[in-house]
Amino acid sequence: MKQAVIHVHPAGLLMALVGNPNCGKTALFNLLTGSRQKVANYAGVTVERKEGRFTTPAGKTVRVLDLPGAYSLYPRSPDERVTCDVLYGRATGEKRPDLVVCVVDATNLRRNLRLALAVKRLGLPCLVALNMTDIAEKRGIKVVPETLAAELGMPVVSTVAVKNNGVESLLKLIDEQATWRTLPPVAANVEATEHGDHIAVRHILQKLGLDEIVPHTTSDRIDRFVLNPVLGPLLLTAVLFMVFQAVFSWAEAPMGWIEDATTTVGELAGAYLADGWLKSLIVDGVIAGAGGVLVFLPQILILFFFILVLEESGYLPRAAFLLDRFMGWVGLSGRSFIPMLSSFACAIPGIMAARTIGNPRDRLVTILIAPLMTCSARLPVYALLIGAFIPQREVGGFFELQGVVLFALYLAGIIGAMGVAWVLKQFTAAGRQVRPLMMELPSYHLPTVRNVGIGLWQRASIFIRRVGGIILVSSVLLWFLASFPAAPEDGDKSQIEYSYAGQIGKAMSVAFEPVGFNWQISVALIPAMAAREVVVSALGTVYSLSAEGEEETEQALGSLISETWSLATALSMLAWFVFAPHCLATLAAIKRETGGWRMPIITAVYLFGLAYLAAFLTYRTALWFGLG
Ligand SMILES: Nc1nc2c(ncn2[C@@H]2O[C@H](COP(=O)(O)OP(=O)(O)OP(=O)(O)O)[C@@H](O)[C@H]2O)c(=O)[nH]1
Ligand SMILES: [Mg+2]
Question: Which atom of ligand 1 is nearest to the CA of 30?
């Protein structure tokens, strides 16, 4: 006789993590699967479906989805839609989950439980992970999981996702066969609607003795200062200013060590390799090119240290709130702030974070201006030019001049973005509407050393992989173009001037002459379409190969360009890099998020146009001031 077997989908068991934004879904996902997805203290960190896998103690292999946070099952923005599609089984290429884990923030049961009840009404097997119980306890909110389970009619485990607490109980529950069965409906007397859920949650909180709203005094006290209309903006300016000061002053020593190390490797290679193409490839292509970018690692890590601390602390949504009115002047709302700030790291996550913006027009404008925020790939370019042309001295007895210039460059990007948004506001009626900002202010958390450490480690490995990958490949390609065809025996110019690269550069420099770029810069701009830092490695290779005759230049790139370029040229190049979209990956992300070629093409054209204009005006103004 045939036995009845439970039908298992070919893809195996599927479990989904669902909950309000910022309740700790990703922290729990990372704990279960051992992955390192981004966790931060604001709503809307996860904007797409992430997948992982884990095995329970009883040997069940479960595929688990981390989903964007949602307030209800009526999606109001593209990221919430992702979650709803999965829950309703509408997501392409994905089956409906076999089990839903409703992650619930114990410090905010009123709102969180409503979603849990709505999920339960979908008829999927589900359980509740009562998270953040550590913070709840500190605030005197005591929830007995059994009581809550009885009230909700579904299993409840309490967890502290950042401290590994409660995962064993969660896994045990997942191992129980009963967990994977659809739950019987409860509270039959209550209407099965959103409004019904609302009444039920009133009801449940009363039963738990948690009906009164517990004020969170520490966060409120901090907010009295942080959100003060006068002190708040001052603090925000001071924080940002301090970051750019630190990027230069703290990085000095470690940058020196990396520079010394690359010089030593270069000298060793120069001494032990026989003259010829291989030596040139290693010394001029790899070491002068890719090696020259590695020097900027400390500055990138310092920048990310601050970004990570700010993200974890809960300060970012406050900054969004402070800037809401200001953003309103240019037709945006504070909602665009976090996507724009994420673009300081890289425009791609910033463009993706725009999925949290419900209004389609605001979302598009945010995507279009995200590339104007100064991403970390611009940092090596700025740092090279600032290091070469801006003297190290204090202004006002306190600020480092180099840090001030860096701050000004970031500001130029922000002002450019606001200007573009303002222009777009004039053309779209929707841009002139006032949209009130509804944003959750999470409680402040002290960033943990572990989280910041992991974040920095991830950043360092991303950067080193870039140097060893795209930057190295572009450097070698450029080295090839700059080394062939070889100079004739009786040539009286340097090798590179006979090469393909030299010829291309000279042809291009006709177009760039009005903005003060020499042919070396013109050559370097082409491979820099792959990534902005490549302009630094490309200049390293070009100058290394431009050395006259046999003698090798021992000079660092910075001192070489400070001797051969005018200040006007350097300023013009800085202005160019504030605007120019030297990054194909960003344009590809815009295509993905807007679903067509129109927007990436518009972005590239308008940004190159602005870059040329800005460089031209900067160069001409500098010449007028006699800086040529
Ligand atoms: N103290 C404490 N902090 C937690 C706990 N779980 C998560 N966190 C912190 O809460 C914040 C939000 O965590 P995430 O995992 O990013 O939240 P999420 O639900 O994935 O958020 P979205 O992706 O924005 O929907 C982070 O700062 C975490 O470090 C917890 O149990 N206790
Ligand atoms: Mg998340």
Answer: 15
| Other beta carbons less than 10 A from residue 592's beta carbon | 13
What pLDDT, on the 0 to 100 scale, is given for residue 395? 80
Q: Which two tokens stand for residue 427?
A: 């053309």
pLDDT recorded at residue 165 = 87
pLDDT, tens digit (0-9, with 9 covering 90-100), for 469-500: 888 998 889 999 988 888 777 777 777 888 99
Which residues does the chain have with pLDDT short of 50? 1-10, 187-190, 549-550
The kind and range of the H/E element at 83 are: helix 78-87
Query: What is the 34 CA–ligand 2 centroid distance (Å)?
Result: 15
Q: 372: helix, coil or strand?
A: helix
Pocket of ligand 1 (CB under 6 A): 19, 21-27, 39-41, 43-46, 68-69, 131-132, 134-135, 160-162, 312, 445
316 Cα–ligand 1 center, Å: 14
Residues 6+ apart with CB under 8 A from 244: 403, 404, 406, 407, 410
Closest by CA to 242, choosing from 373, 395, 399, 377, is 399
Supply φ then ψ for residue 104, to 5 degrees: -125, 130
Task: Give the pLDDT of residue 213.
Answer: 64
| Beta bridge partners of residue 105, listed in sequence order | 131
Nearest ligand 1 atom to alpha carbon 132: 31
Residue 444's identity, in one-letter code, is Y
- Distance, in Å, from the CA atom of 469 to the CA atom of 235, rounded to the nearest integer, reads 39
Reduced 3-state DSSP string for 471-522: HHHHHHHHHHHHHCCCCCCCCCCCHHHHCHHHHHHHHHHHHHHHHCCCHHHH
Residue in 18, 20, 26 to alter for ligand 1 test, most ligand atoms within 8 A of Cβ = 26
d(CA 466, CA 379): 14
What distance in angstroms lies between residue 24's CA and the mean position of ligand 2's atoms?
7
353 alpha carbon, closest ligand:
1
Tell me, letter by letter, the H, E, C secondary structure of 422-459: HHHHHHCHHHHCCCCCCCCCCCCCCCCHHHHHHHHHHH
Q: Report how far apart, in Å, the C-alpha atoms of 420 and of each of 131, 305, 594 are.
A: 42, 30, 18
Cα distances (Å, whole numbers) of residue 79 to 16, 127, 351, 473: 15, 23, 12, 36
Cα diameter, the chain: 98
Domain ranges (residues) in the chain? 13-214
Q: At what angle do helices 378-389 and 231-249 cross, to 10 degrees?
A: 70
**d(C-alpha 403, C-alpha 394), whole Å:** 10
CATH number, domain 13-214: 3.40.50.300
